[in-house]
Automatic annotation (TrEMBL):
The keyword Transmembrane helix applies. It is found in: Cell membrane. The lineage of its organism: Bacteria, Pseudomonadati, Bacteroidota, Cytophagia, Cytophagales. Keywords: Cell membrane, Membrane, Transmembrane, Transmembrane helix. The keyword Cell membrane applies. This is Releasing system transmembrane protein. Belongs to the ABC-4 integral membrane protein family. LolC/E subfamily. GO terms for cellular component: plasma membrane protein complex. Residues 25-250 form the MacB-like periplasmic core domain. Residues 282-405 form the ABC3 transporter permease C-terminal domain. It holds the Pfam family MacB_PCD. The chain crosses the membrane at residues 20-46, 277-304, 325-351, 379-398.
Amino acid sequence: MNLPLFIARRYFFSKHKKQFINVISILSMIEVAVGTIALILVLSVFNGLQELIQGLHDTFNPELKVEPIKGKSFEVSSQLIKKIEAVPGVKIVSEIIEDNAVLRYKNGQMVVKVKGVSENYLEQTRMDSAIRKGEFALYKNGRPRAVIGQGVQYTLAIGLRNDFDALQLWYPKKVKKITLGINAEKKLINKKAIFPIGVFSLEQQYDASYVFVPLKFAANLLQYDNRRTSLEIQLKEKADTDATKKGIKEVLGNNFKVLDRNEQQANLLKAIQIEKLFVYITLSFILLVASINIFFSLMMLMIDKKKDVAVLLSMGASTKIIRKIFMMEGGIIAFSGAIIGLLVATTLAILQQKYGFIGMGTSTTVVEAYPVKLKSIDFIFTCITIVLITFLAAYYPARKASQIDVRENLT
């Protein structure tokens, strides 16, 4: 029999314990439960939002992306493409030209990111689920077409069915000398007209700035010729990402970097993790407040049970056993609340996943209800936090209890 645990359990459920001590113990347990519920649910919402945001970015970002280490663009040849396609695991290699340009429509204008993509980009089908109006196509009746972000459409009030007003894309020409005059604009600015065929919506970062156009159209507008800013690679089903990435690096050499999806959105993932950390620290203060009540509850219990402790010491109980009794008493209070909190939080999270009864509060969001995902690591860190806080709260009362004077409390 574990004597300290047995006595601590008897103290916790004792009917002879002072009523105000019972009240404080119950309040402490409830506070721990509430703190645990808040911590688990908020961290689970962060997990859900992270997964949702990653999913949206994964729709836009390729499985692997090739970029030059130095400079903005690099020369691409059919031989280079064939070498990459020969790497085991590679399915599609799409050529990309991406640069800023001015988009003009009727009387409005804005700076956009023009993303020229090769025709096999459509075979990757990543963007199909993001189309809100029209279709994702690069040509119609042999003429180039543009797919624009929903934010771009709203900003310039672009109509898909308007066959009279085309999108005007402007880009500065590469000239050695700048000359002024009547025809200066033609000499300095490259202009191309294109009609929109579809509207996509993913995430504000992309919706408010991106315009997809055919690769040849972008090469002519931006004067890239055979140069490309990146290559976007789709892998075969069940292909090993790390092994394929390594194979592509061996083919390309040291002048290129090959990025997987996590590396492409490293800053975003880091920002989410930092936010989650600060939320975890903030909500841990709720548990810290609960620990103050545990501290006072144990201090009053120690005063109330001075005679019991003196009897135990006179019967040969060591000071270590007395400390353990009060440490375990604090543990029972904290972990009773923690278990209740974990069960309630898990139940609420599962109900939210299934029924989505707490909505995002706006019709413009990608999902109607808050996304929630339970992770075992959150439960582990919550339990570790409770253990540390309980130890800190119970240590001083336990030490004071072990220092009780036997003669003074038995007379």
